[in-house]
Amino acid sequence: MKGDGSSPGGSPPPAPPPLAFGTGKKVDHVDISTKPVGKWNTKNLALRLGSDFLSAASAAVMVAPIISIVDRSIMENASGRATLVASLHSSLKTLLLRPHSIIFSKPFALIFMLYGGTYLTANTLDTATSTIQNKPATHVTSGTLKFAASSAANVGLCIYKDQVFVRMFGPAGVAPRAVPMASYALFTARDCMTIFASFNVPPILGPYFEKKFSEDTKKLISGLTAAQFLAPAAVQLVSTPMHLLGLDLYNRRAERKGNFMHPSLADRWAAVRKNWAISTAARICRIVPAFGVGGVVNFKVRENLMGKLS
């Protein structure tokens, strides 16, 4: 029977090729039944985790000497042990003449722990993601989870480091005491501001710089790169006073004298204002190795090692 859509033998005609959704174009049939579902990329997993650690350690070793020296100088300047310049001069001289006394010191170990732990957190999160999502070992993630994990590690370890530093380099001749909760709160606020400026601000500020930069400037530095250095450096103008106030609350215990507390808020603000400029400059100088050099070394070493393991 003609016109009934049947083939001569009575069987239905083959179905036409499907159309790509929303295009009207014919596409070949794809068999998805053989596609692995839920498969993890566990190839060389132990070696990949070892590479995560080695990358983080390499970056931390690079930045720890100078950052430990700068942090010590700020602490000693705030406590009155030594001026910032004198402390820097003494520590840098020691680094040049007796580097082992710096490298095997407690301040170095604390800074190594701080940045090694931060980089390792980010690295292992990348490895976990590439494993679970079956992606190449070189895969690098970005987004809220990585930011939150890295920030939590950095802030927590930095607060621990600071409460040790403030007791090590507090006022000379004064027995170490417990760090006040107000100091912990100020240190936390300080670090949150730096993390926010380092990770959240550059993607917003970068495009603005890109529009303002001339073509010659863009050949030297991109808008995003400029923002990655300028944003965390600029926020030190605001976060450094928090740091100094947290140190002052430890260095000078509040005591009641008559109807007034000593030192007063005015006294503390005077101490903060006195050291504001030089401490801000020092903290800006530590930002470059901490969030620039260290991040680049960690990324490059990990990229190279993971490339060999893929």
From TrEMBL:
**From what organism does this protein derive?**
Zalerion maritima
Q: Its domain of life? A: Eukaryota
Enumerate the residue ranges of region (Disordered).
1-20
Instruction: Give the matching InterPro entries.
Output: C365.16-ike
Q: Please state what the protein is called.
A: Sequence orphan
Which residue windows does the record flag with biased composition (Pro residues)?
10-19
Lineage in the entry?
Answer: Eukaryota, Fungi, Dikarya, Ascomycota, Pezizomycotina
Record's GO cellular component terms: mitochondrion
